[in-house]
Amino acid sequence: MAVIYKITYPNGKIYVGQDRTDSINYFGSADSCLIAKDFTKEERRSFVVRRDILWETEDATRQEINAKELEYILLLQSNNPDVGYNRWPRFVADRKSVV
């Protein structure tokens, strides 16, 4: 089972990713340094992140899964630094994204 998920951090920013094993313990590969900059030391002591499954499949190809992940990144604008932590495709304010 493969899934496309959305991680929501306490500051409301999101990260969209994929997990081709549907591991309950996988929370993505967003840049930890980027996320850490948004939280004080005190805020980092205890916080909750939420993982929502946006899409799942048992038989999609890797190419189809990659395309679905990109679709959700663009739809939710998680590549916009004001909205989320995805850094690809590069967000360009007047054109939305550059793939």
Structure description:
The chain has a single domain (2-98), classed as 3-Layer(aba) Sandwich (GIY-YIG endonuclease), CATH 3.40.1440. It is 24% helix and 27% strand. The protein has three helices and five strands; from the N terminus they run ββααβαββ. The strands form two sheets. The chain has a three-stranded antiparallel beta sheet, covered by helices on one side. The chain has a two-stranded antiparallel sheet with strand order 4-5. The radius of gyration is 14 Å and the shape is flat.
Structure described in brief:
It is built from 3 helices and 5 strands; from the N terminus they run ββααβαββ.
Name its key features.
3 helices, flat, three-stranded antiparallel beta sheet, GIY-YIG endonuclease, alpha+beta, 99 residues
Which value, in Å, is the CA radius of gyration?
14 Å
Major pleated sheet? 3 strands, antiparallel
Beginning-to-end CA distance, first to last residue: 27 Å
Determine and state the CATH class: Alpha Beta
**Share of residues in strands:** 25-35%
> Helix-strand pattern, N to C?
EEHHEHEE
Helix % is 10-25%
General shape: flat
**Total domains:** 1
The helix-and-strand class reads alpha+beta
As laid out across the biggest beta sheet, the strand order is: 2-1-3
Mean pLDDT: 94
CATH architecture: 3-Layer(aba) Sandwich
**CATH topology value:** GIY-YIG endonuclease
Number of beta strands: 5
Stretches where pLDDT falls below 50 for ≥5 residues? none
